[in-house]
Amino acid sequence: MKYAVIYHKTRTGYSAHAPDLPGCVAAARTRKATEKLMREAIAMHLESMREHGERVPPPVTETNYITVKREQRAS
Fold first, then answer.
1. Is the dihedral of CA 4, 24, 38, 16 positive or negative?
2. Which one-letter DSSP state was computed for residue 48?
3. Lower CB density within 10 Å: C or N end of the chain?
4. Cα(7)–Cα(37) distance, rounded to whole angstroms?
5. Helix ranges, the chain (H)
6. Alpha-carbon distance 46 to 18, whole Å?
7. Residue 26 parent element (H or E)
8. How far apart are the first and last CA of the chain?
């Protein structure tokens, strides 16, 4: 399964969360370290859900970037 992960630059590094897995988060000083921790967090989150007999939600969040033109300020 492939879950979307949102990364946020913070004052001290990066934080991340998976919208399809509420409560599944990670944070670290670098983006690379945050990605590693998030991969581990997702694996543990799914394992815990299965162990507790919970339904594992399918990945449904989709991502995309939208480019917008910057408006010129009037002089």
1. positive
2. H
3. C
4. 12
5. 31-51
6. 12
7. strand 25-28
8. 52
> Please, is 71 exposed, middle or buried when counting C-beta atoms within 10 Å of its C-beta (0-12, 13-18, 19+)?
exposed
State the amino acid at position 56 in one-letter form. V
Q: Half-sphere exposure of residue 9, counting CA atoms within 13 Å on the CB side?
A: 0
Mode of pairing for the β-strands spanning 25-28 and 6-9? unpaired
Q: Which regions in the chain score pLDDT beneath 70?
A: 75
Q: Say if residues 14 and 30 touch (Cβ distance below 8 Å).
A: yes
- pLDDT tens readout for residues 50-69: 999 999 999 999 999 999 99
